[in-house]
Amino acid sequence: MESIINQLTSNPLYLVIAAILGVILVVGIIKKVLKIVAILAVVLIAFLSFLHFTGQKVSTDTDKLKKSVSSKVDKARESAGKTVDNAIQSAKDYITDELKQ
Questions:
Q1: How many domains does the chain divide into?
Q2: What is the pTM of this model?
């Protein structure tokens, strides 16, 4: 590790290349984080718009909000689990039928 650092500091060309790569890496990470923040903002705006158009009130109590969100996530998880289980069973049935023929 020390030899790499010594080579970078002793040769200005290597130092410039390392700096450029570092900047590219930092810019890439910042772009990914901004993309995630933008997606979360769009989802939040869509959720608030849905609540507004359906006439539901946004809960200001964080405990109620956590319970509401967690119950909806649990329902979605159960639904997704059932769908995956059904797909797996269908695939098993199909493969079994094909092997019998």
A1: 2
A2: 0.46
Long-range Cβ contact pairs of 82-86 (< 8 A, separation 24 or more): none
To the nearest whole percent, how much of the chain has pLDDT over 90? 23
DSSP three-state, residue 2: helix
As to burial, measured by CB atoms within 10 angstroms (0-12 exposed, 13-18 middle, 19+ buried), residue 73 is exposed
- Going from the C-alpha of 69 to that of each of 12, 32, 49, 62, 95, the distances in angstroms are 54, 26, 16, 10, 39
Q: Which domain holds residue 74?
A: 59-101
Query: Which segments of 1-101 does DSSP mark as H helices, in order?
Result: 2-10, 12-54, 62-100
